[in-house]
C-alpha cells in the first residue's frame, strides 16, 4: 500500500471531538494492519473558534521514511479523501482572509473521494461545490450535521459511521476489518460496530466530472512579497462608516473588505420587513455589526458579514420577524431589503417558501439537555 492521507473539514469548536475521533480512528485502524499513522490539527489560518472552518488530517504510511517524506510540507495537499462534517461547508471555506474562499475539494487529489454527511442528494451538493477541473467521487453518508464539541459529547455514532464509509470508499487507507477492530478497542461495543457496518454498507457514491460543479470563481487575495512589505507593523484603522452611493441617510458600518464571514454560517436570518417595527435591537445586539441601517429605518443583514449566530432571532421582540434558515437553501448573498423594496409581494412569497421549507437545525451547544431532546425528537 502507498502512503495516503485524509483531510477532515469541520466546524471549529462545535465539531472538534467529532473530527478528532475520526482521525484517531484512522490511525488506530492503520496500526491494526501493521502500518503507521499520525493525526494532527491545523491552526494558523483556521483558528479553532465557534463555527470557523477548521481542519484535521490523518496520514497513513508503511514506513517511517515514507511518513517523514509525506509530512515535509505545510499540510497534505493531495488527499485521498476529504471528509466534510457539515454539508454547508461544501460552499467553500473562508479562513480568516489569508487565502480567500477555498473550494472544499481544493486539497483533494484527482480521482479522490469527497465524503459528506448530508441528507441532500448528490446533484444538490454538486451545485454548491466549486468546479475542480479534475474528476473525483462524491460519497454521501445520509445524516444531519452532528455537533460534538469542546463542552459536550454527543455519542450519535457519526464518527464510526464515517469511519465505516471511509473503509468502503478508500480501502487503501484502511480496511473494513481493521477499522472494526480499532473501533472495538479497548472495549467491545455492539452499537458502534453496527453503526460502522451501516456506514460501510449504506454509503452511496457518484462520479463528478471535471467540469461539474459551481462555476463561480472563489475570491482570493494577492499576498505581498517581502519587497512590498512595510518596514514596521502597520494596523490601519477602519472607517467607522463606509461611503456608499445612495446611502446618504442610512448607515453602513466600516468593514474589512478582505474578511468575509459567510463561510462560518450554517444558517442565515431571513427578515419579515412587513412586521418589523424598527426597534433597532437586532442592530444593537449583533456581535459582528452585520446589519446596515437603511434610510427609512429598516435593518438589512449584510450576508457577507453575517456569521449566522442567531442572536438577532433570539432578541427580536416581534414573533417570527427574524427566522434562521438553513444555509443550504440559498445560492447568493443578495440584499433581502432591496428584494423587498423592489417587489414586496414576491419577497413575501420567497420568504414564506424559505422559512417553511427548512426543518430545525441545531447551531451547536445551546442549553443543558439539548442533545437528549434532539435524539428523542429524531426517534418520534
Describe this structure in words.
By secondary structure, the protein is an alpha/beta fold. The protein folds into 2 domains: 4-208, Pyruvate-ferredoxin oxidoreductase, PFOR, domain III (Pyruvate-ferredoxin Oxidoreductase, domain 3, 3-Layer(aba) Sandwich); 222-257 and 267-360, Alpha-Beta Plaits (2-Layer Sandwich). The chain is built from 11 helices and 13 strands. A 7-stranded mixed beta sheet has the order 2-3-1-4-7-8-9. It starts with a strand and ends with a helix.
Features:
Alpha-Beta Plaits, globular, alpha/beta, two-stranded antiparallel ribbon, 27% helix, 2 domains, Pyruvate-ferredoxin Oxidoreductase, domain 3, 380 residues, seven-stranded mixed sheet
Layout of SSEs?
Blueprint: E1 4-11, H1 16-32, E2 36-42, E3 53-61, H2 64-70, E4 79-84, E5 93-94, E6 101-102, E7 108-118, H3 122-128, E8 136-142, H4 158-169, H5 176-183, H6 190-202, E9 204-208, E10 267-271, H7 281-285, E11 291-293, E12 299-301, H8 311-315, E13 322-326, H9 336-342, H10 344-356, H11 370-378
Parallel strand pairs: 1-4, 4-7, 7-8
Antiparallel strand pairs: 1-3, 2-3, 5-6, 8-9, 10-13, 11-12
| CATH homology superfamily name of the largest domain | Pyruvate-ferredoxin oxidoreductase, PFOR, domain III
* Helical coverage, percent range: 25-40%
Task: Report Rg.
Answer: 22 Å
Largest sheet entry:
7 strands, mixed
How are strands sequenced across the largest beta sheet? 2-3-1-4-7-8-9
Counted up, domains total 2
Question: Strand content of the residues, in percent?
Answer: 15-25%
Oligomer: single chain
Shape call: globular
N-to-C terminal Cα separation, in Å?
A: 45 Å
Q: What is the element string, with H for helices and E for strands?
A: EHEEHEEEEHEHHHEEHEEHEHHH
Level-2 CATH architecture of the largest domain: 3-Layer(aba) Sandwich
CATH fold category name of the largest domain: Pyruvate-ferredoxin Oxidoreductase, domain 3
Mean pLDDT: 87
Structural class: alpha/beta
User: Class of the largest domain in CATH?
Assistant: Alpha Beta
Q: Low-confidence segments, ≥5 residues, pLDDT <50? A: none
Annotation field: number of helices: 11
Question: How many strands appear in the DSSP assignment?
Answer: 13
Amino acid at each position: 500500500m502507498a502512503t495516503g492521507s485524509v483531510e477532515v473539514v469541520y466546524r471549529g469548536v462545535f465539531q472538534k471531538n467529532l473530527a478528532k475521533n475520526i482521525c484517531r480512528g484512522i490511525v488506530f485502524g492503520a496500526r491494526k494492519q501493521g502500518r503507521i499513522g499520525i493525526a494532527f490539527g491545523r491552526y494558523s489560518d483556521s483558528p479553532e473558534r465557534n463555527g470557523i472552518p477548521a481542519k484535521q488530517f490523518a496520514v497513513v504510511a508503511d514506513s517511517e521514511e515514507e511518513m517523514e517524506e509525506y509530512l515535509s510540507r505545510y499540510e497534505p495537499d493531495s488527499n485521498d479523501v476529504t471528509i466534510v462534517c457539515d454539508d454547508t461547508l461544501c460552499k467553500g471555506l473562508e479562513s480568516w482572509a489569508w487565502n480567500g474562499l477555498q473550494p472544499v475539494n481544493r486539497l483533494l487529489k484527482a480521482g479522490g473521494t469527497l465524503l459528506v454527511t448530508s441528507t441532500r442528494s448528490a446533484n444538490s451538493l454538486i451545485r454548491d461545490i466549486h468546479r475542480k477541473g479534475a474528476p473525483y467521487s462524491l460519497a454521501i453518508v445520509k445524516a444531519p450535521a452532528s455537533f460534538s464539541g469542546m463542552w459536550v459529547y454527543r455519542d450519535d455514532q457519526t464518527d464510526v459511521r464515517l469511519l465505516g464509509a471511509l473503509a468502503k470508499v478508500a480501502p487503501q487507507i484502511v480496511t473494513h476489518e481493521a477499522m472494526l477492530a480499532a473501533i472495538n478497542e479497548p472495549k467491545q461495543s455492539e452499537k458502534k460496530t453496527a453503526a460502522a457496518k451501516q456506514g460501510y454498507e449504506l454509503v452511496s457514491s457518484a462520479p463528478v466530472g471535471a467540469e461539474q460543479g459551481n462555476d463561480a470563481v472563489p475570491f482570493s487575495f494577492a499576498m505581498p512579497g517581502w519587497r512590498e512589505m512595510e518596514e514596521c507593523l502597520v494596523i490601519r484603522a477602519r472607517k467607522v462608516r463606509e461611503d456608499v452611493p445612495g446611502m446618504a441617510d442610512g448607515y453602513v458600518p466600516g468593514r474589512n473588505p478582505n474578511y468575509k464571514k459567510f463561510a462560518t454560517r450554517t444558517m442565515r436570518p431571513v427578515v419579515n420587513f412587513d412586521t418589523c417595527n424598527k426597534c433597532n435591537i437586532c442592530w444593537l445586539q449583533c456581535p459582528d455589526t452585520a446589519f446596515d441601517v437603511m434610510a427609512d429605518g429598516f435593518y438589512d443583514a449584510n450576508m457577507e458579514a453575517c456569521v449566522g449566530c442567531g442572536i438577532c432571532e433570539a432578541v427580536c421582540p416581534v414573533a417570527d420577524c427574524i427566522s434562521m434558515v438553513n444555509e443550504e437553501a440559498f445560492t447568493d448573498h443578495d440584499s433581502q431589503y432591496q428584494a423587498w423594496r423592489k417587489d414586496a409581494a414576491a419577497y413575501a412569497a420567497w420568504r414564506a417558501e424559505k422559512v417553511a421549507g427548512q426543518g430545525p437545525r441545531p447551531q451547536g451547544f445551546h442549553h443543558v439537555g439539548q442533545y437528549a431532546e434532539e435524539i428523542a425528537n429524531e426517534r418520534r
